[in-house]
Amino acid sequence: MRVAGVDEAGRGSAIGPLVVAGASFPSENIGTLVELGVKDSKQLTAKRRLELAPQIEALATGVRYFDLQPRSIDSVVNRGVKLKRLNYLEATAMACVLRELDPEEAYVDASDVDEARYGEMILRLLPAKPKLVSEHKADSTYPVVSAASVLAKVRRDALVAALRVEYGDFNSGYPSDDRAIEWLETWYREHRGWPSIVRHSWAPVKRIRLDAAQTRLASASA
Question: How far is the C-alpha of 106 from the C-alpha of 128, rounded, in Å?
Answer without folding.
Answer: 12
